[in-house]
Amino acid sequence: MGVKSTFSLLFLWLFFLSQINAQECPTLISPLDGDTEVPVDNLIQWTAVDGIIGYLVSLGTTPGGGEIINRRSSGLNNFYQPEVGLPSNTVIYVTISLFLPDAPIRVCPLRIFTTERVTDPPQCTRLFNPQNNETEVRVNTNLQWEYAPGATDYRISVGTSPGNYDMVNNELTGNRLVYGFRDDLELDQEYFVLIVPLNENGAAMGCVEESFTTGIPTISCQDSDYPIISIPNIIALCENEDFGLITAPDRARGYRWIFIDSDGSETIVSETSQLRYEQIGDYRLELYNTLNQFGATIECPVSKNFEVVYSQPPIISNVLITRQNSGLTLDIRTEGTGNFEYSLDGTDSTFQNSPVFTNVEPGERTIYVRDINGCGIAERSIEKELSPQDFPAFFTPNGDGTNDFWQYRRPQGSDEIPYEVIHIFDRFGNFLAQIDPKSAGWNGTYNGRQMPASDYWFRAISFTNKEIKGHFTLKR
């Protein structure tokens, strides 16, 4: 870096420091630094300072302290009015700080003054929010009143008729200028307020009662203000679960789930969009949207009763298949106490209430049964594609009652007979027997003569005219 560049940077830095130093601290002008007998409601004012972006004000009872106000912004105003006045007969320490552009806050030297000794009770005050005789006041309003010079506390009384302070009676607020009610006020109600300022010398005398009136609702629920409600009439508590969980299918501003006891008493069991339930019985769901006026909330409710019942997953016990020229008729038999519905070929298909399907085209299918209350789904394949593994590998026709006949092995729990006929051949291809689908099977004889132990062949023809070939062993 050259000498010229270094000199330029040094010049800019000195210029920046000179600009900061040019921001002289203000002088206290009301009251003056060191003044005594300053009124407790005195406006704090100082000389304006150019080139700043704001002031911070602190007032304390100790040097540099902020017991009265602490680093309160006055914007670009070179004055500040303490909201609740100043304590009497007290040394007040004033700290003015300057917001500087692109520089740290500058804290100016302390200034002090001493307030007057207040020897009289304060004068009365008056409401400014709401104002005396104001109407259409919001029900969630806070009372606010003007500062009474010299006051260190306020006593407030509120009632619903003149002189009858049935809501608030002689309550001390402290050195504050606002009072908030614990609950919202009533709509269309006149309220009477008496505020009495006080200090160590006594209470203000002759303070006048003021009043205001809350608003009268002029709105009412329209059709579009009500929520839509579409909860089912029946909800299941599945017998294999400890509890159920349901979420309201419709959006609303508020929710109330209510359990209705056998004696008619009602208990709110949830006020969210979701209900966890552990017992059967009668319930009601209330949905509501809200309208607001004068700070009051008006509900636009709808409700629907529903019942929680025990239910259980379905069990497919059997499928009865009847073959007709027009196709198959399927009759699905189930177990369980639930309320079931039925479908073919997928859970995305249409379910029907009847367990009977007619005119079903032959072929491999899967049936589905589900509890309509959501407690589970069962499935089973029918018209299973045949394969050689569906037939026994051997049989022993020796009359002992075990494996005495050779026949297609039905799946456990099924009465389905998926083939139309089976032909039996010896190993030379000679036809020996044709098995009736409803018979016990081949007993190992041909024309009344027992066939020898050997391997034999079969050809099974399904109802869809598919052939399955294989072999098995006859053992003696």
TrEMBL record:
Keyword terms of this UniProt record: Signal
InterPro entries named among the record's database cross-references: T9SS_type_B
Leader sequence segment: 1-22
Name of the molecule in the record: Gliding motility-associated C-terminal domain-containing protein
